[in-house]
């Protein structure tokens, strides 16, 4: 059974930074592509970033140049470094391997 546990969210002022972590268990982490999604209140869940098993990355236009996705296969962990945060980045952030989802971590950016 795959378990994904996100952490690192919180309240930050606009322009600040946060680093989210997602620890995976019950899966062959190193052979899997991982993604971050987010869902703001009353909005649909949207794609944020993805990293393949060969470390290729792709980002949503809204976060390109500000967010960086990375992975540590030895720790079964995928990260999302978020810099220059904006109020519109406020959302619950989820990690996923496409089939399984974590419980999410809340990110709130104040103006």
Description:
- This protein has 111 residues and is mostly beta strands.
- It is built from no helices and ten strands.
- The strands form two sheets. A six-stranded mixed sheet has the order 2-10-9-4-5-6, with no helix packed on it. It has a four-stranded antiparallel sheet with strand order 1-3-8-7, with no helix packed on it.
- Strand 4 and strand 5 form a beta hairpin.
- The model has no long low-confidence stretch (mean pLDDT 96).
Provide a concise account of the structure shown:
With 111 residues, the chain is mainly beta. It is built from no helices and ten strands.
User: Which strand order spans the largest sheet, edge to edge or round the barrel?
Assistant: 2-10-9-4-5-6
Low-confidence stretches: none
Instruction: Please tell me what the overall shape is.
Output: globular
Q: Spell out the helices and strands N to C.
A: EEEEEEEEEE
| Estimated share of beta-strand residues | over 45%
Task: Give me the secondary-structure category.
Answer: mainly beta
Number of strands: 10
Arithmetic mean of pLDDT:
96
